[in-house]
Amino acid sequence: MGEEEKKQEYWRWTESNWKNPDIKWEDAKIVTVGIDVGSVSSQAVVMTDGQVYAYSNMRTGSDSPESARNALNLGLEGTSMPESRIDYCIGTGYGRVNVPMADRSITEIACHARGAHFIYGPEVRTVLDIGGQDCKAIRCDEKGKVTNFLMNDKCAAGTGRGMEVFADLLSVPIVDVGERSFEVKEEPEPVSSICVVYAKTEATGLLRKGWAVNEVLAAYCSAMGHRIFTLIERIGIEKGFAITGGLAKNRGVIERLTKEIGVEPMHTEWDTQIAGAAGAALFGYALVQKGKGRRK
Amino acid sequence: MIIAGIDCGAKNTKSVILRDGKIIGKGMTLTGFDQASAVKESLDASLKDAGIDARDVDKISGTGAGMEEIKDAAMKVNEIRAMAKAANYFFPSARTVTDVGAEMGRAVKIDERGKVIDFAINEKCAAGAGAFIEAMARAIEVELEEMGPMALRSDKSIPMNAQCAIFAESEVVGLIHAKTVKEDISKAIHDAMASRIVSMIRRIGVNEDIVMIGGVALNPGFVGCLKRELGIDRVYIPADPAFGAAVGAAVVLKEEA
Amino acid sequence: MIANYGYKDGSGDYFIAVDTDKCDGCGRCVEACPGTVFEVVDEDPNDPFREDPVVIVARDKGRKLKYECGPCKPPTNRPALPCVEACPQDAISHSWDR
To answer: Is the CB of residue A281 less than 8 Å from the CB of residue A47?
Structure first.
């Protein structure tokens, strides 16, 4: 292929899948699947009786139905589970209405709250999801039901995309941004522009003034942290604070954000990117149990 | 009396020389990252254009995002006031003025003397400023100057979903991949941008005559979409609209002197 | 549930909040809004277990609230907002005044 393929893609992260070795799907009563087709990444979570049996996490392609298909295939890879075993499948995320194998779609707001409640535990009250093209702040009750939410998918500032633009501008692999943003002698002033287009111009000016790349990264990470803080402030932050989505993996933003909030985020062993798909699979499980879902 | 009006904008710095209220020289330079030197360069260019010496200038009036860097300014004029005065200077019949520059969009309602009655502004977001069209031009690999004329060659109406310039970049690239012709994409970009400026004008009321200044007024594609969105036949644009605010700043100083 | 539709960008916050516990989906805001910002849906897309109609702001509208709501928000002499006035349940509020 052409030049484009050879060019290093600084925004690229690793795709993955996982299977729970302790579960035998053959023993399951109800198998549900949640497929979260985000603007940047797609996940499929396969649940057996409300427990995670397998999942996948990959980059979304240009076509939503195909991305959903690929995510499900990767999730089922090496499990020997036939697709026909799935009792109910729910699509969520940006491309949720384009998930061909879904029996129903539910918004990412509901799914993220439900999923975070599952992967972080019932103490979760505030969920922040920083996705590729949006940022969601959700308050929920002890059952994982949404009580207050907002979603910003209009503006790239405070989303994974904003960070990708910077990683690309500064030629730093996106997975290294967090670490490198702390390799500075002194914490710099945050980038003052919120708009990513203007922040890019500002960053170019800083580099020209002699700032090191890591300093510019630090300045952007802290601007982004502050930006997300002002967004989440709107719904109010309660303890039991969980951060999901791809950007949860970026220490540079998260540590600066939580310092400003003054609430420590909860920890989980799970891949935080699967929250939406896990929530979708759980809704599927609940619907089947209530007799509202299909049962073959 | 000779007055220099300097508008230190986000993208370009513009200077005009007014002798007894008449424009006798103009100079423009890219603002870049050193505003102070851009101010000096544009002023020098306007002096050269006017054929006069720096010592001949009685007073300097400044405006624009970088007006604090205009050290020799006797007066600093707020951008809203400058654009209102500029519209009145060029077209006394003006009642609504819109100024769309690289990093901002504004709409001002004025009276017959160029006094500000009401205004609405859009700044700090590229979606409602010239930067939007620039970013799109880069994304579809078309020269910025070509964007407007290209849009005029299309009569299609393709809606754009993205508001943010960053997201719109991927959307237009998607349109290219879907083999949409660039003329139609360019029109969609201008339509989207014009509808945002028009909704801002609607907040202060659409009162004719409508004047447009700022660098984006040079884009015939944008002006076409603006007229269509507003449902009016004519938008008044001065020669060299990019110098509008600089002229306005100079006129304000002249009237106060 | 408080559903905040809208966004924040470099120029400010633009949110319409709907209290879905108060909203009964009567649709008077839909009729009152000149920008057709609202719509009544039978199933709350954000609450899969709710079974009553509710009003939502569609995504494409939510992304341009600053512009859609502009005509109802002149900079000065601001009248009461038609959607807020129309709601008998007092379920709608706006985050921005500028």
So the answer is: yes
Contacts of C64 in chain B (CB under 8 A): 163, 196
Picking from B33, B135, B174, the nearest residue to A197 by CB comes out as B135
Name chain B contacts of A161, Cβ cutoff 8 Å.
Answer: 166-167
Tell me the average pLDDT of chain A: 92
**Whole-Å CA distances, C12 to A63, C60, C76:** 33, 18, 18
Question: What is the domain-level CATH number for residue B138?
Answer: 3.30.420.40
Do B87 and B141 lie in one domain? The reply is no
Q: Tell me whether B179 touches chain A (CB under 8 Å).
A: no
User: Cis peptide before B209, with omega less than 30 degrees from 0?
Assistant: yes
Q: For residue A38, what is the domain's CATH number? A: 3.30.420.40
In a domain, A294, yes or no: no
CB contact under 8 A, B165 and A161: no
| DSSP-assigned states of every residue in B136-205 | HHHHTT--HHHHHHHHHT----------SHHHHHHHHHHHHHTT--HHHHHHHHHHHHHHHHHHHHHHH-
Residue A296 falls inside a structural domain: no
Structure confidence at residue A8 (pLDDT): 62
Structural domain that includes position C46 = 2-94
* ipTM, 2 dp: 0.94
Domain shared by B126 and B249, yes or no: no
A106 plus A155 within the same structural domain: no
* Same-domain status, B64 and B40: yes
Q: Does the distance separating the beta carbons of C63 and A154 come in below 8 Å?
A: yes
The SS3 of residue B72 is: coil
* Lowest-confidence segment of A12-16, A187-191, B5-9, B128-132 by average pLDDT: A12-16
- The total number of structural domains in chain A stands at 2
Q: Which domain holds residue A178?
A: 126-265
Domain housing B64? 1-91+243-257
Work out the average pLDDT over B77-99: 98
CB A98, CB A70: distance < 8 Å: no
pLDDT of residue A3: 42
B235: closest CA of chain C, how far (Å): 21
What is the number of CB-based contacts under 8 A between chain A and chain C?
65
Axis crossing angle, helix B220-230 with helix B182-204, rounded to the nearest 10: 50
Q: Give the confidence band of A272 by pLDDT, cuts at 50, 70, 90.
A: confident
A201 reaches C (C-beta below 8 A):
no
Residues B165-173: what's their mean pLDDT? 96
Helix, strand, coil percent values for chain B (each to nearest 5): 50, 20, 30
Interchain CB distance below 8 Å, C10 and A194: yes
Identify all chain C residues contacting B164, using CB atoms and an 8 Å cutoff: 9
Number of domains, chain B: 2
Quick check: A5 pLDDT over 90?
Answer: no
- pLDDT in the model for residue A246: 82
Domains identified in chain C, total number = 1
The predicted-structure confidence for C7-65, as pLDDT tens digits, reads as follows: 999 999 999 999 999 999 999 999 999 999 999 999 888 999 898 999 999 989 999 99
Nearest residue in B to A155, CA atom? B164
Distance CA B51, CA B24 (A): 9
Give me the pLDDT at residue C78, please: 85
In a domain, A203, yes or no: yes
Q: Do B167 and A209 touch (CB under 8 A)?
A: no
User: Do B140 and B19 have their domain in common?
Assistant: no
- Say whether B131 and A62 touch across the interface (CB within 8 A): no
